């Protein structure tokens, strides 16, 4: 099956409340599916647990099929934990396993569970240096996703984002806790694996952020352009 839809269009939604981002979604679909996708994304924005929004931005952009990349979905690994402290320790342990020093891994974990409200992902190199850059993955979708789906599928959408980010130049890992107060599962994506970790925060806890870990010396401007502008289907 061809992962790239015929006559492809990018459809995006961003919702804000009092100037703060509360919801966003991306679709790459064929032109006949655009009306259904717009309706579904508008409904999703209105029903977000951090809402209701006071501003909803919907955009449509035509794409060239030849410009769309196809990247493989990460392999999924699930974990079972008894409490959030165990879950958070897993994050640091996974980082150490891929070569991050324990000190830097613990610092990244601390930032993951304390920093919130960033409109995108912060970029930190493998030596622990904050590169003072925020990146956002856009223009992406999962192959075969239902364009009329209005209820957020946290896992599927996280997998799509994580797979695109992982394919970016210089990326070693991505850490994520959702800013949805009712969704407590997060992930570490690295070395081709999506480590899905439950109980990274308490239900109702108002934290959520992303960190992209890159190799020292990575061309961050190139990475930022790729994540924002390169259309990608995850298959």
From TrEMBL:
<dbReference type="GO" id="GO:0005524">
    <property type="term" value="F:ATP binding"/>
</dbReference>
<keyword id="KW-0460">Magnesium</keyword>
<dbReference type="GO" id="GO:0042410">
    <property type="term" value="F:6-carboxyhexanoate-CoA ligase activity"/>
</dbReference>
<keyword id="KW-0093">Biotin biosynthesis</keyword>
<comment type="subunit">
    <text>Homodimer.</text>
</comment>
<dbReference type="InterPro" id="IPR005499">
    <property type="entry name" value="BioW"/>
</dbReference>
<comment type="pathway">
    <text>Metabolic intermediate metabolism; pimeloyl-CoA biosynthesis; pimeloyl-CoA from pimelate: step 1/1.</text>
</comment>
<keyword id="KW-0436">Ligase</keyword>
<keyword id="KW-0547">Nucleotide-binding</keyword>
<keyword id="KW-0067">ATP-binding</keyword>
<protein>
    <recommendedName>
        <fullName>6-carboxyhexanoate--CoA ligase</fullName>
        <ecNumber>6.2.1.14</ecNumber>
    </recommendedName>
</protein>
<dbReference type="GO" id="GO:0009102">
    <property type="term" value="P:biotin biosynthetic process"/>
</dbReference>
<dbReference type="Pfam" id="PF03744">
    <property type="entry name" value="BioW"/>
</dbReference>
